[in-house]
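Worked Example 4.2. Consider the chain below.
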Amino acid sequence: MQNTAATAIFITLLLVLTLLIPEGLMMSNEKTNLQNLANDAVELAERQGGFDYEYEGVRHSIIGQIESRMKSENLEGYKISYTKGPVQHNDSLSFEIEGTYRYEIFNLIGITNMDFPLHAKKNGVSEVLFR
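Applying the procedure from the previous section yields the following structure tokens:
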């Protein structure tokens, strides 16, 4: 009797861990995608002099590119914040993505609110001199 109960508990825990590991890998993959997106966005903004601004009557924006990449990588539910306007040479700029990742494995045992926050932030320095 004791051995049967221990075996049942062991099999249950093994099943949960077997399903939890791939879910953790998917979350870490999404976190990596967020960080790569933030790095690429800041690198572009450093070369362009900002994320979204108007200069001499011409509108410059890389936010559309960032949002389309977010859509292609299934990161639509994330909130982005960035330095607005033109960023002068050697001034700092920042880009931040915030959101949550929901572990779907916990729905099997009746827990529906297992959301974990994901956050990526990158700072940079503008390389463009506006005159």
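The beta strands are 52-55, 58-61, 79-82, 92-102, 115-125. The mean pLDDT is 88. Compare this with Example 4.1 before moving on.
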